[in-house]
Q: What sequence folds into this?
């Protein structure tokens, strides 16, 4: 009986040389002796085949992130934290990637959101000699890896645009080793470096821009702990344009004379999608058999998040934002969506469904999950202070999964709170007040230069300056500013410029 399906392809050779062939082994041996196979061993240790035909960018990124030993900071399955394609969804919905693939700029965005240092180069703003130097740099080290975005046609291969990591370089023949993540189609293979450049120097019809390559390495500083900017929703473009382009013009054109007036000016035109733009990084886990146990590692991560939240609530800017939203909502309904506190139950209903989808490997189908019950409870870790956990039952068809969301809290003191009356102190979880405060702190310093009142300008600079922030909060704000800097470059759908270097600003 005939079976209408495909099992692998014959690798066109030339121009490619199969890695496992006698010639491929010779190239490997000589490159190893020359020291340009150093990155190979980490990559091959964590190598994986893309799980969907259009997931080449996600699979390449998962391999490299794991090879760099970057901690995703959230669970993959069971107790394990590990990068998987299903977790790389912050810049493009997985169902869209599955249907259409992913662009060069979005892969760079994902890498940055995942906590890597990214340098992205298009062939239109680079050269083959620069590319060769970067290949030599990455293949001679375990600390940097290169992902190429190229078209298969110059290699006489079937298919079109593709992503894969580069695993090695043979100097004498000027050939690179492509670790093709579509292993169901082609095995790893050596190709001439200049031919790979030609394959990268092609136009992606989806964007109208050249393909290219990106270098990934570990950030010297940890990424944000509690907040992140998300470009998963299409509205991120309007948010980025408002914050980067419109706010400075508004401040320059209006004669503001006080901090509340500045906040009114900014918030009255703030897109309603701000809640989808700056997100609280929540930690979700399966309910354990003994639900009263919190691991030491979970406790430490939660404590770090709480430190960030506490420091945000202690800033002078937070007090202005809180007072303004409290007063504004009483006479202007347009501010209600900003000032109202979202209940933990409402947050949990959304976050736990996402978490359950991650834990079951079905993140592209979050809509299939329903949140049935909610219970706010306290756990104790090693006899320490209680920790708030929102527990619920996530339902998908006939399947049920108990899920916990760990909730960071800070002790926010009211004006009447003092050490003699601790009952006046209120426990707060991340809300719109602190999220908006952090977003304002993350705006580029040049944002405020248009304010004409010099006294007010000096006051605003004091409120938004990162120099005097505690170290933990300063790192959080600078990471968000770095994300915003990336989105400024990417807000016209794709990253432009000679080099997109995503560094801590």
A:
């Amino acid at each position: 009986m005939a079976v209408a399906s495909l099992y692998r392809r014959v690798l066109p050779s030339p121009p490619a040389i199969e890695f496992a062939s006698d010639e491929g082994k010779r190239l490997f041996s000589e490159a190893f002796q020359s020291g340009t196979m150093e990155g190979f061993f980490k990559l091959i240790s964590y190598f994986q085949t893309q799980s969907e035909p259009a997931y080449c960018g996600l699979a390449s990124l998962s391999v490299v992130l794991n090879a760099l030993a970057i901690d995703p900071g959230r669970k993959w399955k069971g107790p394990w934290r590990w990068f998987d394609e299903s977790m790389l969804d912050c810049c493009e919905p997985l169902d869209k990637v599955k249907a259409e693939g992913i662009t060069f700029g979005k892969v760079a965005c994902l890498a940055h959101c995942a906590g890597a240092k990214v340098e992205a180069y298009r062939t239109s703003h680079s050269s083959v000699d620069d590319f060769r130097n970067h290949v030599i740099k990455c293949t001679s080290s375990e600390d940097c890896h290169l992902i190429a975005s190229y078209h298969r046609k110059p290699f006489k291969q079937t298919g079109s645009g593709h992503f894969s990591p580069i695993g090695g370089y043979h100097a004498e023949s000027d050939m690179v080793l492509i670790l093709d993540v579509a292993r169901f189609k082609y095995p790893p293979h050596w190709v001439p470096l200049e031919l790979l450049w030609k394959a990268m120097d092609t136009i992606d019809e989806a964007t109208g821009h050249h393909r290219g390559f990106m270098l990934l390495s570990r950030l010297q500083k940890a990424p944000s702990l509690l907040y992140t900017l998300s470009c998963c929703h299409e509205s991120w473009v309007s948010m980025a344009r408002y914050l980067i382009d419109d706010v400075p013009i508004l401040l320059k054109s209006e004669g503001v004379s006080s901090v509340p007036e500045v906040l009114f000016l900014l918030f009255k035109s703030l897109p309603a999608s701000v809640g989808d733009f700056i997100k609280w990084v929540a930690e979700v886990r399966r309910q354990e058999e003994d639900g009263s146990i919190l691991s030491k590692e979970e406790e430490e991560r939660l404590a770090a998040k709480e430190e960030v939240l506490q420091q945000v609530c202690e800033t002078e800017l937070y007090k202005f934002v809180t007072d303004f939203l409290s007063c504004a909502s009483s006479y202007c309904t347009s501010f209600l969506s900003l000032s109202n506190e979202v209940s933990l139950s409402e947050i949990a209903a959304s976050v736990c469904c996402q978490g359950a989808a991650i834990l079951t490997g079905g993140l592209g189908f979050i809509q299939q999950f329903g949140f049935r019950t909610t219970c706010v409870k306290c756990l104790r870790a090693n006899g320490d202070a209680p920790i708030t956990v929102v527990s619920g039952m996530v339902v998908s068809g006939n399947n049920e999964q108990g899920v916990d969301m760990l909730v960071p809290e800070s002790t926010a003191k009211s004006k009447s709170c003092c050490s003699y009356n601790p009952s006046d102190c209120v426990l707060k979880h991340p809300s719109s007040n602190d999220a908006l405060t952090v977003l304002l702190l993350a705006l580029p310093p040049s944002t405020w230069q248009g304010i004409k009142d010099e006294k007010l300008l000096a006051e605003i600079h004091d409120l938004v300056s990162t120099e005097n922030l505690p170290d933990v909060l300063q790192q959080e704000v600078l990471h968000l500013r770095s994300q915003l800097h990336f989105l400024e470059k990417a807000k016209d759908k794709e990253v432009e410029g000679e080099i997109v270097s995503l560094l801590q600003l």
